[in-house]
Amino acid sequence: MSMRYYLDFDRTLFDTESYKAWLKQRPEIIPLAALPPEEFLSGVVALANEGALAFAPGELSQFLYPDAAAFLREKENAATIITFGDRKLQELKVMSALHGIPRVAVMYTQGVRKGAYLAPHTHLHGGAVLADDYWVELEILAAECAGIRLFEMRRDGAPGDGRWPAIRSLAELP
């Protein structure tokens, strides 16, 4: 059986900080740009859910990390994106960023932590690998999904939490 890869989207496959800076220049977002981060995100989520925010196919591919598209193309059906945020906003981002990459499966947890989301199906994930940048997600996954090997993605080059192997590129995954 081939290796199964679960990959977080924001800050693992997608340069979220560069995307946010770019997004703040869009006319429909400019009124939100000066808000505190939580209010800014709430405003963007509201626009996405109202249908007032859209991205052209491939428009967001510029924010994929250089190794992301190649990794997804190479792993094909063995790779699944698992993402936590607001479903509508995450769908808009994922569909635009990954336009043209075939056979990409995505799990939208809609605010359910990834460990809790995957836990009922842990028998299906034995030997799988998961990469995420957020220690909270990794901590819950470690508690709920013992059969999944966890890797902390550190695109920023900072040291990892220390409880999981820290990687800086998808090429470091087994």
Distance between the termini: 14 Å
Mean pLDDT: 94
Give the name of the CATH superfamily. Answer: HAD superfamily/HAD-like
Output the CATH class name.
Alpha Beta
* Major beta-sheet overview: 6 strands, parallel
The portion of residues assigned to helices is 25-40%
Sequence of strands across the biggest β-sheet: 3-2-1-4-5-6
Radius of gyration, CA atoms, in whole angstroms: 16 Å
What's the shape?
Answer: globular
Beta content: 5-15%
CATH topology: Rossmann fold
Order of helices and strands: EHHHEHEHEHEE
Structural class: alpha/beta
Count of folded domains: 1
CATH architecture descriptor: 3-Layer(aba) Sandwich
Number of helical elements: 6
Total beta strand runs:
6
Low-confidence stretches: none
Describe the protein's topology.
Blueprint: E1 5-7, H1 16-23, H2 37-50, H3 68-75, E2 79-83, H4 87-97, E3 105-108, H5 114-118, E4 129-132, H6 135-144, E5 149-153, E6 166-167
Parallel strand pairs: 1-2, 1-4, 2-3, 4-5, 5-6
Could you characterize what this model shows?
The protein is α/β, with parallel strands linked by helices and 174 residues long. The chain has helices spanning 16-23, 37-50, 68-75, 87-97, 114-118, 135-144; strands at 5-7, 79-83, 105-108, 129-132, 149-153, 166-167. The protein has a 6-stranded parallel β-sheet, sandwiched between helices. Helix 4 (87-97) links the parallel strand 2 and strand 3. The two termini are 14 Å apart. 29% of the residues are buried. The mean pLDDT is 94.
